[in-house]
Amino acid sequence: MTLLVGGTALAVYWLGKRYEKSSAATIIIMDVRHAESVVQSILEKNQIDISIKDVLFENNWSKYKHLFAKDFSQDDFAAFNRFFESCAEMSYARNRM
Hints:
Blueprint lengths: L1 H44 L14 H5 L9 H23 L1
């Protein structure tokens, strides 16, 4: 009986973690696409002003990156870190305008 309860609890935990990782991946993809669209609009206008959308509303990568540590190589992980650090710098610069 204890083994059955323990196995069920483990399965529920594992499925919850898998769902959390899937949700985090979706959120991060949405953040990347949004940042790309903002950068594209900056390049098209060839200027930055206060009317430009914020690049990052919230740095979700810093919140969820631990879920993907095993999935990426060190270089890939570093590239994601640099991308989101750059987005955060752009957001900070925009907010200072």
